[in-house]
Structure formats: C-alpha cells, structure tokens
Amino acid sequence: MFENHLPTAELQALDAAHHMHPFTDGDGLAKKGARIITKAKGVWVTDSEGAEILDGMAGLWCVNVGYGREELVEAAARQMRQLPFYNTFFQTSHIPAIQLAKRLAELAPGDLNHVFFNGSGSDSNDTNIRMVRRYWQALEKPEKNVIISRWNGYHGSTMGAASLGGMKGMHAQGGLPIPGVVHIDQPDWWSEGGDLTPEAFGLARARQLEEKILEIGAENVAAFIGEPVQGAGGVIVPPATYWPEIQRICRQYDILLIADEVITGFGRTGNWFGCQTFGITPDIMTVAKGLTSGYIPMGASIVSDRVAAVINGSDEFAHGYTYSGHPVAAAVALENLRLLDEDGIVARVAAETAPYLKAKWEGLAAHPLVGEAKIVGMMGSIALTPNKETRAKFASKSGTVGYICRERCFANNLVMRHVGDRMIISPPLVITPAEIDILIARALKSLDETLVRINAEGLN
Ligand code: PLP
C-alpha cells in the first residue's frame, strides 16, 4: 500500500515537523530523522529504503505471533462487519468479550478467573491501583492503601502507572509518584549484588519488601506489584530465590500480589505466564502487548476469586474505559490466543527455540565486552562492561556505550534495544533456529564494531 511513498528524506522531515514521538529526543529526531518502517513479515521489518531488518524486539515486546498473520486480519475484519463497537458498561456485554474473558480464565494460573478489560498496559495498571484500594476499602480497611513497587520497574506512562514504575527520570518530569506509592530496590545481581551469591542477593532484595511493610505497617499496605522479569529496566532476570520469598511475605502480611505480565505474558518466558516460570500465583495479573500480539491495542487485569468476590459484591466499581473489552480487539485477542496454542507457538518456544537461543545467547558472554548474559525464554540481556571480573561500569555516562552498540546493530539490520549499557532482546516467538543464528551473528558483529569505537574514542 505504501510502496509509492514519498522519498525517505521528505517523510523524515514531515515526521520531525508534525509527529511528537514517545520516549524520543525531538532534537535528535530532527537532526537524524526517524527510521521509517513500511511493512513486515514474520520476524522481519522493512524500512522505507527497502532494508530488511531482523526485529529482535518484536516491536515493543509485543508481536508474539510474528508479523503478517492473515488470521488476525480476518478476525478483525469479521468482527468489524458483525459489531464494530459496543460498550460493556451498565449491564451490557457482547460475545467476543465473554469468550475472551472465559479463555483468559482458562489460561491463567490459580483462581485468576475474572477479567477486567482495559485499553493498554498502562491503564490496566491504573485499574489495578483503583481495584486494590477499592478492595480494602470495601472490606472496611481504607487505610490499607499503600502500594509497594520497585525502582527501575516499568508499569506504563499514565500518572498512576508511571508512579508504580521506578524510573526516576519519569518521576522527575511529572511530580511523581502519586501519594501512596513507595519503592524498594530491584533484584539486579550483576549491578548491585556485590559479594553476595545471586541466591543470597535474591533473598536479601525480597526481604526489603518485609522491611518496608514493617516500616509502613502491614495495616497500611494494600499490594506489591512487580514484573516477573523487569523488561524496560534492562531484562533483569531475578535470582530463583526472589519470587517465592516475595510471595511468602505477601501472604504472611496479607498484601495483594500483582504480577505485571505485560511483557512476560503469552509465552515470552517459555510458559503462558511469567509467574508460572517463577513459581508464584498472584492475586492480580496485568496483561497487554502479547494478548493481541500488538495487532490492536488491548489490556486486561486478570483477577482472583477472592478479589473479584469483593469488587463484584460491593457497590458499583466506579471505573472503566470506553474501550474496555472492545469487540474488535477481543476478537483479535481470541484468534491470537488460538494461534499461540493450536499452532504450537508457546509449546515450541519451551521445547525448541528458547533452549536453542539460550545456548547461543549465553555464548555471547565469551565476547570481551560482555559480562553477564542472561536469558529466560525469549527475553534476554547482556551487560556490557570494561571488566568482567570486577563487573565494572564504563567511565563514560551510562548508556553511551549501549547507544553505540544499538546504532551498530541498526546499521547491521538488527533491532536490539539498549537500557543504559545493557543490550536487550525480545524477538517474536516464531523466530526459527536459522533466524536465531542470524540474530547472534549480527549481534557479534555489532559488539566487535562497538569495541573498535570504544577503543578509538577511549570510552572505557
Ligand atoms: N507494564 C509493563 C511491564 C510494560 O513493559 C509496559 C510497556 O512496555 C507497560 C506496563 C505499559 O503498557 P502500555 O505501553 O501498553 O501502556
């Protein structure tokens, strides 16, 4: 459809003149111009110059079934013809929302049997803030309203979700966090573990939750929220000791546990949900992204029997979005879940492609620039370092080396993102072993070129 588009330079000029991008330095955009993506298939995206780029990030961690699945296009078109929109407010419902809620209840672990639909991951987490506060209020414990989350976590961009997140740069720009949200440290052993073993460090970081609860008083704490694997924070895979201890503490002090599965849901960690990979059963799960493989926006809060009984059993929960349970999004989600299941996509990740990728990814640790190489399922990170033994950081400002590496990847037609001086991947779940070989070869070439730049510019 866009084959006869304007020349790239003209598109870039129009883009810089009129399009305000999320998380983008506008000045840099005006000087360099955006890379404009025109089409995609499988794990490959094509830019306006015709370059074929391996998308190691599945868009923004979301295109789980890969690009170009006609089944999803058909599902959307069918639903648009049948019923393009109806709301789910005021005791109305429709078939796609009913079917999707039932399917999610089947897939979700434990007694997570109830679904509140939202438009995105951010507004799902806003729903969660309101829901857990409403839960304790309905139980006549309105003072139990503080939510504990983690520094360097990411839960979205709305005022509520960005408050839950622990991105200090985001807090600084908007008078955040909102009252009643406090943070503890993240379980990043490579950067912050010091002399502790990863196992001991995982326990120590989980016990910060207990310390914080005791400091605030359990009678004042509503919930803890965390991503099973911190994604935007740099794919921080926690030590195995971490999550079971978090769950133990939440249960001991009667604190609701919210797992933000916006990235880790729908096969990303090798199971349907990250909480299954890490052996926990939350009270609420946030999902979005892979729910529709990004083909259309949708998010949801999947809620336990215990929480739903209180929310449904009290006065009306005064919350919701026009697009809660949007029928077209729900139809796409249902078809996407069918593909993930019946096409064996999730099963293949666990049995075949994730083990293959893990072996190759961990092999990157042999590169002189790479310290820790961590991966779980189809999300991985490498920490770039001038000294593997001491786990040192570069003397240059954090992110300088990561940015160079990301640019080298881009030049080599591989999308890898950088978070500070960590490089991260999260490819479509349909990536094949042959495509994994290409990803690794391009990553290695980019690392070599980064090393040359570091040495030339004396950046270590
Ligand atoms: N939660 C997590 C863990 C995320 O990674 C993201 C987005 O990256 C969000 C929430 C926010 O989702 P959205 O961008 O759909 O609002």
Give a short summary of the structure.
With 460 residues, this protein is of the alpha/beta class. Helices cover 43% and strands 16% of the residues.
Describe the structure.
- The protein is of the alpha/beta class.
- It has two domains: 35-65 and 344-457, Aspartate Aminotransferase, domain 1 (Alpha-Beta Complex), CATH 3.90.1150; 70-342, Aspartate Aminotransferase, domain 2 (3-Layer(aba) Sandwich).
- Helices cover 43% and strands 16% of the residues.
- The chain contains 17 helices and 15 strands.
- Strand 11 and strand 12 (379-384) form a beta hairpin.
- Helix 4 runs antiparallel to helix 14 (327-342) and helix 10 packs parallel to helix 11 (242-253).
- Bound molecules: pyridoxal-5'-phosphate.
- Pyridoxal-5'-phosphate (PLP) binds at residues 60, 120-122, 125, 154-156, 227, 231-232, 260, 262-263, 288.
- Keywords: Aminotransferase, Pyridoxal phosphate, Transferase.
- Its cofactor is pyridoxal 5'-phosphate.
- This is Aminotransferase, class III.
